[in-house]
Design brief:
eight-stranded parallel β-sheet, 5 helices
Length: 347
Amino acid sequence: MSKLNEMRMYTWNAQGLNYVDHKHSQAEHVPYYKESEGESIKALEEAFDGKIYGLSEDIKAENKEFRNYSIYRDVKEDRDTERIDLHVNGDNEILTGAIDINVAADTTSSFLVNITGEAGSRLYLNNQIRVNIKDKARVKLVIVTDLPEDTINFLSSTTILGEESHLDLSYIEVGADYSVVNLKNIMEGDRSIVVEDGVYFKEKDQFLDLLATNEHYGNETDSDAMFNGAVKDRAHKNWKGVVDLRKGCFEADGKIGDYSMMFSNEVKNKTAPILLCAEKEVAGNHAASVGRQNKEMLFYIISRGFDKKQAESMMLEAVFSKAIDKVDDEDIRKSLKDKVHQMNIRD
């Protein structure tokens, strides 16, 4: 049994947050309904050589051995948002995919990865996203995971940033009975910047383990990561956010936080903001809040003519809106907002 989302430093052993035991593999050699696009990018492979990333070495090996879909993008000039759709259903129950994006210096690009599925079958996903951002390039990456129940979702997204590069990253997840997600940004270049937003909603007996790490190596690097979520019924969520200030990252600044709302006494909601520091002249902030919705705000909205369920849904939608508004597709954005708006907080 392997360990998924294993933290570099074991700091939360008593809470069971240092890793997740892996016992859910269902990958096998099966075709996918779409043909792979592009070819392996040498510059990206060289950039990731020797790097530690992903959910685990076992999951990476599984992804490589059973991969049935790959997308390669070598960005050499400015480009508008590209939408990449990954879909699973009864005819395509297993997706073991990879997305590799290599971004040239001084370019601006945007990618929307839309991961969806249809209910009715037990679905399995193991997806790996890698992005290599060269000096002074700007990248916007939005990952939407909207999967039905009875789905196992393993996903990792790793980015390497060059000097004065900029990453705007958003991760949005609803659905999926069992989900393990790893988001890692390796800030190698001086003055590189990461702005990261995330939202999640878990209900019934669903499980989410999310590890978000920003590693600072370059001087004057800056990361600002904020996650917002909600859990209800008997859902179980683990969130681990790490600002990792490595030796040599002079005047680096890292911020990370998770604000999670609970709508049931039966949920398991574990949040661990972590600051690792090996350098003196740096700044780091980490925060977390776990609780129920603001009663004063709830009362205010109800006093304006809305019932309690409507007011709760409106507050939840407002919390999620910052990340959802970054989705550069009107149909996907509307679908996400409608789902959040229609979620009843109380049964």
